[in-house]
Design brief:
alpha+beta, two-stranded antiparallel ribbon
């Protein structure tokens, strides 16, 4: 049985995120918490990783852990969330 998708993300983006250990739960689980967004002073969005080091797409940037997940970035880009 397939779950209904929350977001429609292109297959090529999903293929870029092969390291996801949660099987792209962000796309199917309504309870899944997406990484947050912080707007920088240059008015750019930066994904703040809420998953910590357990996520293969978390990366240290100064004193912040940021999200580098292609799927999360695609969700923000397409749905502005």
């Amino acid at each position: 049985m397939h779950s209904k998708k929350r977001f429609n993300i292109p297959l090529e983006v999903l293929l870029e995120a092969k390291k996801c250990t949660k099987h792209h739960a962000c796309l199917t689980d309504d309870e899944y918490q997406l990484c947050g967004i912080r707007i920088t002073t240059e008015n750019h969005a930066r994904m703040v990783c809420g998953k910590g080091t357990e996520c293969p797409y978390s990366s240290q940037l100064g004193n912040q852990t940021v999200c580098t997940c292609p799927v999360r970035h695609a969700i923000h880009s397409k749905y502005d969330i």
